[in-house]
Amino acid sequence: MAQLGDLPPELILTIFSHLRLGLPMHDLFEWPGDIDEQGRITGVRWNDLLNFSLLNRHFRQIVSDKLYTQIRIQGKLPITRLVSLLRFVTAHPDAAADVRQVYINLDSGRTGSTSLRQADVDFIQAAAAKAGITYPAQILFCENPHLAALDKKGIKVDRPGFWLLEQLRLQVLVNISLAHLKGTQELALTYVRGVFRDFDLIKDMPKSIYTSEDEDHVNRGIGWRPMVVGKPCLPQLFSLVTKDTRTEIFVGDEVANLLSMGPNISRLCLDDVGVYIRLQNSGNWANISHLTLTTQHIGFAAMRGISERCGALSIFKYLPTAPLERTGSTPAQPGQVIGALRKHANTLRTLCISSSRHSLDISIDEPVSKLDGFVALENLWIDKRTMIGDLGVAQRMLDGIGIVDSREAFLRSLPRSMKRLHLHNAPYVPSAGLYWLAGNSDLFPDLFRFELDWPMRGDDTPEEDIRKLFLQLGMHAPTRREMVRDPQLWDRYF
């Protein structure tokens, strides 16, 4: 059991100061944040103290009977770390029951599987049986001691199918560990690399896998069978973040397997998940109300499929990034994304849509021209490229008063339910549209925050005049330094 002397001296002083002054000890463990869309645990104070509280039961009882804690698995040798975590949660079920946030970063380098011994294999098998997790027994075995010695020296041993086997092992250990953390409410899995796939492997597999990852993608012939790992059930899980830097597809069964872990998942972030998504049916899609797609890009068919499967979206963020390499997949245009979202026009409250990081090799010729019909929309973050595309000049559109600039027509189409509006690269917004918005502020009775983000002083729009005008109308019009310019985090500060 951990001792108080294991803590940094400044934390020991803080603890005893709280005790001497009679201050509530639980304050030491309070944090305002949660797992954000990038998979990071935000706002956590005193990480060393939290980790200590997991190991020392008596200290936990002094501080609080119910202590919300978090666990992180990151760095190299993830298999070694996951085995250690599994030993801890099975030996300390009372501490494991207090865990609410879990962050697992599966490093793609040395996984540490060569350090597995027979005692580890037997322990994993017993822990899996206790948690009700099934897996193909032949994927966990003791490695050749000679290979283990080479691995410790940093010498890579290239064996056919090695990485496929490593992914299966990681999947087994992650699932068993999570099955012992039933109280998990927020889960972040970064660098997934296909860990939650239903792999197909050769039927008669000896103590290695004689196939490459490429063969696994294309061959589905005779002699192959699915290698399925049992999935944990986390009844309290409501937030799931996945981050993957593959350029290949994010296979549909991965998303389905991830969603099947919790019947109450309502917040889902697919971050860097590849160039397009093949979806499989999962009943849990209907529960998703907060969806973030920070992808290299997503195809229109996948976007439409996601929109149809989700029950009633409340928050949606579409923030595509440039792909790591050229692909044959065609991404959804911003206008197509909005078209797919119209099913949720009566429930969508927050929309963050940006094309500023989208690949410049792919022209945006279908921007977001109008948002009429989204009657519940309250918060909008949108940038210049999403509004006008890559045409170079704004289109002329037919509006109720005649032919107007497409950007002005966009502002005129804003729902009357708007509360917060962020226009990124605001110098590209015409003055006529902004003056119309200010002059018709009575049409937007709830609009109280108006963010005009000028990267530099623009010539098209008199920045200070517009800002003063909205201030006179009683709206909060912050300067660039006062506003949150990251669309991924913008709504976190409401």
Commentary on this structure:
It comes from Colletotrichum gloeosporioides (strain Cg-14). This is F-box domain-containing protein. This protein has 494 residues and is an alpha/beta fold. The chain has a domain at 289-393 and 406-493: Alpha-Beta Horseshoe (Leucine-rich repeat, LRR (right-handed beta-alpha superhelix)), CATH 3.80.10. Helix content is 30%, strand content 14%. The protein is built from 16 helices and 15 strands. The protein has helices at 9-21, 47-55, 57-63, 78-91, 93-96, 118-131, 145-152, 162-179, 213-218, 252-259, 300-309, 334-341, 384-388, 406-412, 431-439, 463-472; strands at 69-73, 99-105, 186-190, 199-202, 224-227, 239-243, 267-271, 290-294, 315-318, 350-353, 379-383, 396-399, 402-405, 420-424, 449-453. The longest helix has 18 residues, at 162-179. The model is unreliable at 155-160 and 202-223 (pLDDT under 50).
